[in-house]
Amino acid sequence: MNHLSPVGVIGAGSWGxxxxxxxxxxxxxxxxxVFEKDLCETxxxxxxxxxxxxxxxxxxxxxxRNSLEEVVKNSRLLVMVVPSHVYRGVALDMLPCLxxxxxxxxxxxxxxxDTLLTMSGIWREILPPGSNIKVLCLSxxxxxxxxxxxxxxxxxxxGEDIEITRxxxxxxxxxxxxxxxxxxxxxxxxxxxxxxxxALAAGVCDGLxxxxxxxxxxxxxxxxxxxxxxxxxxxxxxxxxxxxxxxDLLLTCTGDLSRNRTVGFQLGQGKKLEEILGGMRxxxxxxxxxxxxxxxxxxxxxDMPISxxxxxxxxxxxxxxxxxxxxxxxxxxxxxxxxxxxxRVD
Length: 346
Hints:
By secondary structure, this protein is an alpha/beta fold. It has two domains: 182 residues, Rossmann fold (3-Layer(aba) Sandwich); 136 residues, N-(1-d-carboxylethyl)-l-norvaline Dehydrogenase, domain 2, CATH 1.10.1040.10. The chain is 49% helix and 11% strand. An eight-stranded mixed beta sheet has the order 3-2-1-4-5-6-7-8, with helices on both faces. The radius of gyration is 20 Å and the shape is globular.
């Protein structure tokens, strides 16, 4: 494990701080890049991140750094946990400092608005041809607060090189943070990004006062449309029945710690998006990702009715109750994506 020490974690929000502390507690030195200079000094002085994880003491192996260059150049293993809308800018700033053999683990769940690229897609676009730098993706059902509370958690690490993926798996896994490997990078990334949009819809339903029946139907049909998009883009269909798919979707659509569900809940109660976001320090990725998913569905010609209606509620001020009527009033159809006559039992 020490041969990848120190590990650099880029981004000191709740999830970045949690991952940094998790790695540090396993005995590895960790440098955590903190964008805000005042927060960096506070973490150094108090061993706590009061902005994003108040009340949790951070391990002594974790060192807060305000210099991105210092963290990047001194680490072979880098974990990226910055919001998707600033991801490209931070990655470009890192580029001149990266080691030739760097391993980058993306833990950001999102799709870039302008290019419709996943976070690993951004790296593929900006890395020089022939680069030996490997990009992996970490995703799955994992609230930061519960990981800090040592709640048993299981997630997925996806990479195109299975041996390197297993090496990183061993570094990041602990007795209470179990990591499974996957070769389906695009599937894991699309699942992690798309589920935030469905979680907004789940929150809206809860805010409108609907019950468990509605939520169960929404999650199930949300998974169906996420899977359609993923398979169209080359993902393995079974990824969406795993931790990064249904696992993360269930957590984000039902958990009170979900920022995306919380935003949706307040929308369902009649609050305006600007008012909701104005009262939040942390990012609800689904709000940004809804634009990307809406555009991506059109580009790929994939039917994603729930995601489309979330987009219209967020950006066209559509009444959530009208959305429900339209979704329930769609043409009746077979549940599965094949012709039922092919599988008919005589």
